[in-house]
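EI: anyone free to look at a 555-residue chain?
SC: sure, send it
EI:
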Amino acid sequence: MYNDYNNVLNSALEKLTFEQRSSGNKRTALYQTGYPQFFDSFTTQCNTITLMYGLIGPKLVQELRRNLNRLTHEVNYVLQYWMDNINVHHTTQKFWDTRYSTALDWVDQDLMYTNHRFCRQGVNEPDRGNPDTWFFHLRIPRPADSVSAENNNTAMDNNTAAAIVEFNRTFTWEGVDATAAPMWVTKTFHPTSAGFRETKNLIMFKLHYDDALRALAGVPADIMVVGDVVAAGGYNPQSETYQGFRGHLNSILGDYLMPGGGMRRTFIGSQSAGYLGYLEHECYPDANLARLYDYLNVSPDIYLQRKVVLLMAGTRDMVYDEEVADAPTRLVKIIDLIFDKDPSAVVIVGQIPMFGLQEDGSTFYGVQRRIASYNAAIAAIVNRMVQEQGRRILKVHTSTTTWEHQEGSFVTPNGSGYLRMAYDFLEGIALANVFGWLNERQAFSGIATPVSSGAAVTAGSTPPPFTSFAANGFNSSAPTKTVVCSQARPTGAPDYNNVVKTLFGGLSQLDFISKVACNETAVCNNSPNSNVSSVRASLNRQCALTVFGTISFRT
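SC: here you go
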């Protein structure tokens, strides 16, 4: 599978001539959709039923559903990891050193199927006509003639059962194209139109990702990074790993390309090195999951309210094989602690990066298998908390590979690895904002509100059930937000051309860029900064960006 999958992707990239794209056009990429889970595994009403009436089929007990979901997450993680290894060699810089553009982009559609899987709470399966189930049941729509509506489903079940027996007796998959199978077979467990529409919305989020980032401008957020040795990063200000991904993420969120000066963010936590510009956190290099819980439980900052928590932990448990089977339970305990102390928190859980040195992922040995299974469990944990508890929690895949580790280190990423990690968490923050989670809980300005350790935590409200893109105002048909003026333009008011002339001093937009905005003499003559080298450095960066981002107007 490894060879086949990589051959397909590399062949496609070769045909797309990814590396030859113009420097100003970095949007072309291959988008790989992940596999969604089929079942809600925490419900019990499916324990005694099968989806195949009329046949002796397996009962959908919780253990079976959990195992099938786990296999889905493990396949997703392995495919993502293989993509990450290809992206290491196919990543270009979009604007100087601040934005990555990768050849392959993963579309994690699983979250979109929340509240739309088989065996949901309150649904008596097999409910083949339920429009809120976004997968096709196994069914032949061939009811017997002259049957009452009451017996219609039973007739369909019996026909389906007979057809399956005949199909299994006469059909072989060996050497046969899947399209040769009947449609009622091939579409089973595939998404319905409603599921595909939501997947389309997520892809549109990817295609218009820059708009999602601009929407973060001015949004307040108190960010707490919680984790172990990998999340902590280095403590030497001269090291490329200084502050891990925190420093990179802080710079990206403050990108001046965002209107309004970027996100209004403050990094919070009880851990600080005391250096100027050091970003506070709750990371402990010596911590496994159990010790991280203990550290966090006595931290005074755990009681700060309305925070965004970026959590990445479990490295030591996996590397030293410490009760690995129970590691997901210990992670859940940490997440429950965060929500118990701050019900209004938004938690973004990052999968831990792979262990090793410059390995292609064609095989997985002991510790790597443990990491793959653990990361798959993280996806399942997050999904359950969203579905069952209505938590504001997301999972992000950490795309740092073993090719981006410090020299000689099997665990610690290098500067490039931490930068890639920062962009992974950035997408989680942008997605949380699209869902309305940040504005919904962040009706404040300034530092998060502390709550004393002895007081009952009442801040925040009960999180609402998870809703889709469309329910949160995401319009996939509109590439950017526009302002529609309903007033009639007053007589004598300047028209479009006059407004443009005013903005650019009577010049065209391109002439203004070349003769004024990017002209060193013109800029120095009008700059309050007398340091010519400083002005020149700022001008060089600004004009390199301006070439790719000229202003556009709509009438």
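EI: Strands lie at 30-33, 91-93, 100-102, 104-107, 220-227, 264-267, 282-283, 308-312, 346-350, 393-396.
SC: 👍
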